[in-house]
Amino acid sequence: MFELISKFNKLKFINNLQLLIILILVVVLFISLYLGISLGSFQISFFDYLFGNDSKLQQRVFEEIRLPRVFLAGIVGASLALSGASLQGLFRNPLADPGLIGVSAGAALGATLVIVLGSSWVPSYIFGPFILPLSAIAGAAFVIYLLYLFTKGFGYSGITYMLLVGIAVNALASVGIGILTFISTDSELRGLTFWTMGSFGAANWLLVLPAYIFIIPAFIWLLNSARKLDLLQLGEPEAIRLGVDVRSLKFKVIITSAIVVGISVSLSGMIGFVGLVVPHLVRLIGGVNHNYLIPASIIFGSSIMIIADLLSRVLIQPAELPVGLLTSAIGAPFFLWLILRVKKT
């Protein structure tokens, strides 16, 4: 991380203040990781575990429950924040978020199909615990195919059509989820209800490690396009004259968002407003250039989600509050404030 920041600094694409902000956010991330690992309804001391002073029960809870949960929360928060920051840059719209183009809705519909109909259609031994993530990714990929089809391969004039297709996909996915909810059994309905509220309670290393394997390369792939997103803010004609392959950039941003959002939604359920709120907070703190905005959003989004998951575990312990409710309770007022702010300008 520090080598990457130094590289940006040498290229003069990030100033000293932004470098300091990123370093502070890294410290905040480590603090949130420590708090997320140590606190909860079952108290665990990280240092006792490190020096072998805890019991076998504490070790098992730490290794098999607490660590995968915190790491999943971190990668989901980073994914949603990255997707929000890149989509806002692509659409040149401060109100854009991962749900805008229908990717989240497509992933949600794919996962809902498995929750309600999966046991009837697909034997559990074929894909095992991977059936839910694979179905969500398939749903997100189908949305991407529709976007590509209706916008003629993410062509020059495809932004407006992409937004319209996203609105249509969200509406159709809501209908599909509603029908599946209607025909579900009591147990399926309960699982579906809690999944749509968002939770990291089902985290385990078998799912978390593959998520990191796919998501981290997507991060690196998109980071290389940060400067192009800056040039795109001048408008597509100007960006093309400055040598930016706009069609390729659209493809990279949309595909990356589909990958990270599809995986995140499949593992955590529906968690709203993180992709909208985090990039705006990062902009307010340090600026708008994407060489700073994207890595800062990744780090800050991870911290925010870990803290949100911690609060969901401790506010009404020993019960657990769905983390999606917390993020929506914070994000909805911020969204209203943002709309009023955009209207005034």
What order do the SSEs take from the amino end to the carboxyl end, as H and E? HHHHHHHHHHHHHHHH
Radius of gyration: 20 Å
Q: Strand share of the residues?
A: under 5%
End-to-end separation: 36 Å
What characterizes the major β-sheet?
none
- General form: globular
> How many domains comprise the coordinates?
1
Report low-confidence residues grouped into runs of 5 or more.
1-12
Oligomer: single chain
Helix content: over 70%
Q: What is the name of the CATH architecture? A: Orthogonal Bundle
Return the average pLDDT rounded to an integer.
81
Give the strand tally: 0
Task: Please identify the top-level CATH class.
Answer: Mainly Alpha
The CATH superfamily is known as ABC transporter involved in vitamin B12 uptake, BtuC
Which class of secondary structure composition applies to the elements?
Answer: mainly alpha
How large is the count of helical segments? 16
The CATH topology assignment is ABC transporter involved in vitamin B12 uptake, BtuC
Task: Give structural notes.
- The protein is mostly helical and 345 residues long.
- It has one domain (2-344): ABC transporter involved in vitamin B12 uptake, BtuC (Orthogonal Bundle), CATH 1.10.3470.
- The protein has helices at residues 2-10, 16-38, 46-50, 56-91, 103-121, 124-127, 131-150, 158-183, 186-197, 205-223, 226-232, 236-241, 246-268, 274-286, 290-314, 323-344.
- The longest helix is centred in the first third of the chain and has 36 residues, at 56-91.
- It is globular, with a radius of gyration of 20 Å.
- The model is unreliable at 1-12 (pLDDT under 50).
